[in-house]
Amino acid sequence: MTQPVNVTVTGAAGQIGYALLFRIASGQLLGPDTPVKLRLLEIPQGVKAAEGTAMELEDCAFGLLEGIDIFDDPTAGFAGANVALLVGARPRGAGMERGDLLEANGGIFGPQGKALNAGAADDIRVLVVGNPANTNALIAQANAPDIPAERFTAMTRLDHNRALSQLAGKSGAAVSEIRNLTIWGNHSATQYPDIFHATIGGRPAAEVVDDQAWLVDTFIPTVAKRGAAIIEARGASSAASAANAAIDHVHDWVNGTPEGSWTSAAIPSDGSYGVPEGLISSFPVTSTGGAWQIVQGLDVNEFSRARIDASVAELAEERDAVKGLGLI
Ligand SMILES: NC(=O)C1=CN([C@@H]2O[C@H](COP(=O)(O)OP(=O)(O)OC[C@H]3O[C@@H](n4cnc5c(N)ncnc54)[C@H](O)[C@@H]3O)[C@@H](O)[C@H]2O)C=CC1
Ligand SMILES: O=C([O-])CC(=O)C(=O)O
């Protein structure tokens, strides 16, 4: 019999949590043959709502769901975790940038890093969704010295998926015909969605689109500011699409990316593409054997270089800010 995988989800009673848990329990995170045990971590005020969600999970009678436990203590919540989805954090409101959440949310990820370090399983994989995601991942990582650094990642898959849809809309192609888009840098308005290595139906995307003004004035800002546009329209930040991207990220990390194509994830830099080592930056990545690799050897043109550098500079500023706050 296959051993169940322990999946800890923080912020389980929040909007993203509600969209995420049912998909994990139905097998979409790890695959149709992998049983799961859910560990829901909330703050004390969130526990009652998490209990309600747990009741609904029971009512779905998912065949793969082998248990649900609810915690308000991080050390208990992460004990034995194989996968940790760090969602719980305050979302931004209208008019805020994600970086404005650094002080409010930064304090969450140090204690959670320590708790992961204390008791997570040896194969723990961490995805940080709570904003500012890249720097929160850095904080958690810095507080978990016994866990290999590369197990800490942050989510830019939602940006990647947004870019895929925008490019499909412009070119009239199906999303499934597009390969090898990249999100570089920070999950913020400085992120750089790069189509210069992407193909549409096997042809270079930049050639198919052939519209530099659209790229500069529409595509890049639409993708980079989509989170704010959703907040404006919905009155709350993206939830189902964020949960969907978290599923995609962990699914590909564990099960591998399809042959011949890459995706985007924020992972610790090894210095590739001039991104200072250690920053948790979005790169073009593949996954094999359960580990992410940065796609090597891509030509970076001047247009892309300037945009990657700007986003990476912001990541370095955020790192310095949390250093200043004593969080790393
Ligand atoms: N990386 C990305 O692409 C995206 C990130 N986000 C971020 O995800 C985070 C969560 O968003 P929502 O679910 O919409 O927020 P929400 O406010 O609906 O839910 C957050 C939940 O986290 C809980 N929480 C707060 N502190 C906690 C702690 N220390 N431990 C455990 N739980 C805690 C709260 O009680 C609440 O139930 C926000 O920071 C948001 O900005 C949202 C969309 C996309
Ligand atoms: O924009 C926000 O605050 C939520 C988020 O990260 C996104 O939707 O990309």
Structure, explained:
This protein has 328 residues and is of the alpha/beta class. It has 2 domains: 5-154, Rossmann fold; 157-318, Lactate dehydrogenase/glycoside hydrolase, family 4, C-terminal (L-2-Hydroxyisocaproate Dehydrogenase, Chain A, domain 2, Alpha-Beta Complex), CATH 3.90.110. The protein contains 11 helices and 14 strands. It has helices spanning 15-25, 47-59, 74-78, 102-119, 133-142, 157-171, 205-209, 212-224, 226-234, 240-255, 302-324, and strands spanning 5-10, 36-41, 65-71, 83-86, 125-128, 152-154, 178-179, 182-184, 192-194, 199-200, 203-204, 263-268, 280-288, 291-294. The strands form 4 sheets. It has a 6-stranded parallel beta sheet with strand order 3-2-1-4-5-6. A hairpin with a 2-residue loop joins strand 13 and strand 14 (291-294). Helix 1 packs across helix 10 (240-255). The longest helix is centred in the C-terminal third of the chain and has 23 residues, at 302-324. The chain is globular. The structure holds 1,4-dihydronicotinamide adenine dinucleotide and oxaloacetate ion. Oxaloacetate ion (OAA) binds next to helix 9. Oxaloacetate ion binds next to helix 9. Residues 156-321 form the Lactate/malate dehydrogenase C-terminal domain. Belongs to the LDH/MDH superfamily. MDH type 2 family. NAD(+) binds at residues 11-17, 105, 112, 129-131.
Give short descriptive properties of this protein:
tricarboxylic acid cycle; Malate_DH_AS; Lactate/malate_DH_C; Rossmann fold; NAD; 2 domains; 11 helices; L-malate dehydrogenase (NAD+) activity; L-2-Hydroxyisocaproate Dehydrogenase, Chain A, domain 2; three-stranded antiparallel β-sheet; 328 residues; binds oxaloacetate ion; binds 1,4-dihydronicotinamide adenine dinucleotide
